[in-house]
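Escalated from tier 1: manganese (II) ion holo job.
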Amino acid sequence: MKNIAKIYAPPAPHMVGDGFRVHNFIPSFPALSMQRMDPFIMLDYGSKFVFPPAPSPKGVGVHPHRGFETVTIAYKGQVAHHDSFGNSGIINEGDVQWMTAASGLLHKEYHAESFAKTGGAFQMVQLWVNLPAKDKMSAPKYQAISNDQMTKVFLDDGKSYVEVIAGKFKDQSGPAKTFTEVHLQNAILAKGMKVDFDFPATQNTFLMVIEGSIKVNADALVAVDHFVEMDKKGTSFNIEATEDAKVLIASGEPIGEPIAAHGPFVMNTRDELVQAFNDYNDGKFGILED
Ligand code: MN
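Tier 2 regenerated the structure:
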């Protein structure tokens, strides 16, 4: 069995720009370092927060990324993005954007225009997935994964299900293409339902309670907005919904390479970080107006 290592209450939120009110779990908690959670190098969780109507969309202005992937899950509300290669789109409620920043781009992330006008509940996850050295300088790309493209595996009650974004649940694969083995899934469970997960013991695994509350391994009770670090040992664990619940489950094979990180750049060496700053200053990430 894979046991819980530790349950984390959400730390005080901070604002990213003026639109994203997030609790940072990885890597702010010393025990949830990039090395410990490899390949997951950053987890910002925007707990449910009601934004009032705004005359112009709130968000975060132009910034670069290099060396990894950003995975944005919109649980409530809508996120709009634009990048320096002319790509843009809207991540609607229930959808995921899997952005491979790789060699680098500039982008901005805002509440969608229509959401800003009406305001409302906003809840999201942004997870950074590291890339192996050999792929860090590959071309940027996007996977816009709408909710209806996700593989839904229904459980015995016929209404609870596991939504597979990436990797596998009971041999059913999700649509996201990944560079290394990554499993990313939402379990949507009616009160009382139980579900078993099984991942290789080599992987780093965490849970994030998005809605409701759960029991893990028929023992520890985990409340909404809490993060569960699973032990490195063991393979299988059980989740029971103690009320209607939604849980994000992530498990990934560690890349096991040196990590040199500074702000929006995550490389293998200090020299590569310096190169990233130089390339950024030289305009090699493209051009994007605020
Ligand atoms: Mn970004």
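The longest helix spans residues 270-281.
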